[in-house]
Structure formats: C-alpha cells, structure tokens
Amino acid sequence: MQCSWKSVMLLALASIAIQYTAIRTFSTKPLSLLYSGLTPTGHAVNCSLRDLTKLGRQRLEGTDQGCDEARTPSASSVDSVNANKRIHILILATTRSGSSFVGQLFNQHPEVFYLFEPLYHVQLALLPRLSQSKNQAERRVMLGAAREMLRSLYHCQLSSLETYIRPRPSNHSTDKLFRRGASRSLCTPPVCEAPLGLEAQSLVLADEGECVRRCGPLNLSLAADTCRGKRHAAIKTVRIPQISDLRALIQDPRLNLKVVQLVRDPRGILASRIETFRDTYRLWRLWRATGRRPHNLDLGQINTVCEDFLRSVSTGLLSRPAWLRGRYMLLRYEDLARFPLQKARELYAFLGLDLDHSVEDWIINNTRGTSDLSSRQKFTTVRDSAANAENWRVKLSFDMVVYTQTACKPLLELLGYKRVFHPRELRNVSRSLVEDRTFLPFL
Ligand SMILES: *[C@@H]1O[C@H](CO)[C@@H](O)[C@H](O)[C@H]1NC(C)=O
Ligand SMILES: *[C@@H]1O[C@H](CO)[C@@H](O)[C@H](O)[C@H]1NC(C)=O
Ligand SMILES: *[C@@H]1O[C@H](CO)[C@@H](O)[C@H](O)[C@H]1NC(C)=O
Ligand SMILES: *[C@@H]1O[C@H](CO)[C@@H](O)[C@H](O)[C@H]1NC(C)=O
Ligand SMILES: *[C@@H]1O[C@H](CO)[C@@H](O)[C@H](O)[C@H]1NC(C)=O
C-alpha cells in the first residue's frame, strides 16, 4: 500500500521531534545507533520511520520521490544481504585507469544490465566546459544531480536521462546516448532487433559505431523494460571523485549498492592521458619533448587524481566507517591486468554473484597479447593488458615520473607502488614497481 501525503508529512514531523529528543538525550552516542533504535512497530502504513525521515529530507532538497520509492523491506537489511536480492554495482574510477576493462567484466554477464558513463550527460549539461570544476558550489550541484541520476538508473528509470540528453529525446527515443555501443544490453534484442547475426557479440566490442548504425535510435522505454528484466545492474563512472560522495546512496538499504573502486598507479594514468587527451595534456607532451617543464603546466591535473584516490582509499582501507561495511572493494588495475581471471573471481565473490562462463570466456579472449592497436581502438579493451599496465615506464620522462611520485607519495605507499630514484631503475622493466599486496574487502 502506498503512503498518503498526509501520513508522510505527519510521520516526518513526528520523526523529527523524536530524533530531536533522542539526540538531546543520548548526544554522546553515534547517530546510527539512534536511528536503528527508532524503527517503528505498529504503523498503519508500510513505511519505516527511518525512510520517512529520509523522505522528509529529500522533499526539503526538492527531489520528487514517493513513499513507495523510499520504502524498504526492513531497516536493518543493509547487513543481511540475501542471495536473491538485486545487486547494484558501481565502478568508481577515473579516466585512463582501466575502467572500460572492469566494465566489461559486468557487461559480458547475461544477467547484468550495464551502463557505460551515463553521468556524461549530466556533466555535459551542468558543467559544459570543465571536466574538473574548481568551483565547489558547481561541483556540489553536479554531484547532487549525479547521485539522483544514479539512483534513478539503478531503479531502471532511464527516462531520467532525457532531461540531460541534447537534443532532447522525443517519444522516449534518442540516437544521442553517449557510448551506447559499449552496453551490450542496448545493442542486442529486444532493445536492438537489427539482424546482427552471429558476429553480434564481438561487434559490440570491436566497433561500437556498428551498434549505433545498425540498431537505429535507442528506445529508452524498451531499454528500461530490459533493465527491469535483468537481475542486477552495473554502472561505470569516472565522474564521481570520492567514495564519500556516494555515502547517501550506499546507506540507502533499498538500493543495495556495492562499490568497486578501481585504482591505478598515477604515473600510468598520466602516461595514458597524455596519449589520449592530446589537447588537454598538450603541455605535458611539450615537457616530454623538450625536457623542460612549461611554466604554465596545470599540475592540478595529476594532483586531483592523487587527492581523490587518497581520500577514498584512506576511507575504504584505513578508517573503514560502518556505512561502508560489505559495500566497498578496492581493485588495483595492475593486479587485474596480471591476474584477470583470479581478480574477476574475487570481485564476483565479494559481490555475491556467480561468475558467468561468458565473462570468463571474454577474459580469456581479450587478455592475450594483440599488438595491432589502431588509434580508433584506444577506448577498447582488446589489448595485452598485462604488458600495458607498466608501459608508462618507457613513455614518461624521468623528470615527469619524479614529479608525479613526489606529489603522490602517500598514495603510492598506501597502494604499494614503488618509487624510482634513477632513470636506469625506471626503464628496467624486468623489475615490477607493483608490490604484491592483498586488499581484502571490508566485510
Ligand atoms: C503491509 O505489508 C504487508 C506485507 O507486505 C501486508 O500484509 C500488509 O497488509 C501491509 N499493510 C498495509 C497497511 O498496507
Ligand atoms: C511520436 O510517436 C507518434 C506515434 O508513434 C508519432 O505520430 C509522432 O510523429 C512521433 N513524434 C515524433 C516527434 O517523432
Ligand atoms: C518503444 O517501445 C515501446 C515498448 O516498450 C513501444 O510501445 C513504443 O512504441 C516504442 N517507441 C518507439 C518510438 O518506437
Ligand atoms: C571467444 O573467442 C572464440 C573464438 O574466437 C569465440 O568463438 C567466442 O565467441 C569468444 N567469446 C567471447 C565471450 O568473446
Ligand atoms: C634490471 O634489473 C634486473 C633485476 O633487478 C637486473 O638483474 C638487471 O641487471 C637490470 N638490468 C639493467 C640493464 O640494469
């Protein structure tokens, strides 16, 4: 049964009063304890007090959700995830950290609805010019919108994207969804009925454009139906800076969100970005070519990566707040590149999902050495991933390496990436700079 507006307001007000009293009474205890002690017992409506409180806050913030939306089976379900429950996966990454590769580990699973960078549209609409806005207010607006979008998408409300897609879709249909071809579910029946034939599977990976050309405009209603039909959903994003930005979603028991944070040696990220984002990283290329650091080089480009990583990883590995329990796993790209199958198994074990054989097949097919990389494929994952993970060592100048590892020293230590102190050490790739480390999920 749905809650009426009046009961929502009444309960929200009541809960605020109760919380106020409770907070005053036990102000030394952590808030989470208070909340769990406030679950109502004999209500006429099927909404827990906690959810109504949350709903009240969301109303104040101007979002538009019904009570049914916020209703949860039980307030304590965060800790008792049962095996049949729908799992929502977020791949928290940054550009050029190997996130397309990790995305494929879910994209290839027949029971996972996978979306590649849906927040692109949110960012483009709200912060058109800047990929990393320094303006805190703008960042907050963007992050708030991003969180609401993630929540909607996990609930398969794909029409939420329509507000942000340009030109605005008509009849819930668009040919402008960013990187649609990267999502198998959006390129295969029933969303795409085009006669793709036997090569359909590899087509999705080898040439995303082929999907767009053959499938025609994307019917978002149909895609939403498909999303509902799948047992789980996964989203990859490079547009959320830190794990704490996701706290509200992680704490939402109805969402059952699990975050896989993908990290990579920042020196590897830098080398890859210099190759990929040629305009943005033009001055870094100049540095490499001339051997002299341009005075107007934007060092923030790499400092931001290290700060964001450090904050998230410190939270996830060291401070381990209760709200992250069972919801966070750290994955080093270098480990995935070296031991793809083993790491994929660990990943799926953490999530509580079966590793489908199609995922294993995909890994086996796509982690063998192939050297015929054309520039068109720079975003695809078909490559010799293990060799690639450390090839920054022959691509960056020693000065650039020294600068980066100095700026990122605490992070490198935390993640087990060794620094180098001599050019000979840098170029001698027979000795890996990745220490063996095991990062156990926080359960
Ligand atoms: C609340 O939900 C339970 C089970 O979902 C149902 O049996 C009960 O009738 C519902 N109560 C109200 C007031 O809707
Ligand atoms: C939307 O769909 C209806 C019926 O399918 C059609 O008549 C109409 O022309 C479509 N509108 C646009 C803008 O495509
Ligand atoms: C999209 O798919 C739905 C069925 O889910 C259908 O009713 C609708 O007509 C389709 N829209 C377009 C524009 O084809
Ligand atoms: C793996 O490669 C084999 C042989 O080329 C092919 O038949 C199979 O469909 C591929 N599987 C995946 C998941 O890519
Ligand atoms: C590279 O490192 C290995 C192992 O540390 C060492 O045996 C080898 O001599 C080094 N090669 C060069 C050219 O320095």
From TrEMBL:
Domain of life: Eukaryota
Main location as per UniProt: Golgi
Keywords for the protein's UniProt record, in alphabetical order: Carbohydrate metabolism, Glycoprotein, Golgi apparatus, Membrane, Signal, Signal-anchor, Transferase, Transmembrane, Transmembrane helix
Topology relative to the membrane: Single-pass type II membrane protein
Compartment(s) where it occurs, according to its Swiss-Prot or TrEMBL record: Golgi apparatus membrane
GO CC field: Golgi membrane
Entry EC number(s): 2.8.2.-
Signal peptide: 1-23
GO molecular function, one term: keratan sulfotransferase activity
Gene3D superfamilies per the UniProt record, alphabetical: P-loop containing nucleotide triphosphate hydrolases
Matching SUPFAM superfamilies: P-loop containing nucleoside triphosphate hydrolases (SSF52540)
Ion transport keyword on record: no
Domain Sulfotransferase: 88-413
GO aspect biological process, one term: keratan sulfate proteoglycan metabolic process
Protein family: Belongs to the sulfotransferase 1 family. Gal/GlcNAc/GalNAc subfamily.
Classification via PANTHER family: CARBOHYDRATE SULFOTRANSFERASE, CARBOHYDRATE SULFOTRANSFERASE 1
Name of the protein described by the UniProt record: Sulfotransferase
Origin species: Labrus bergylta
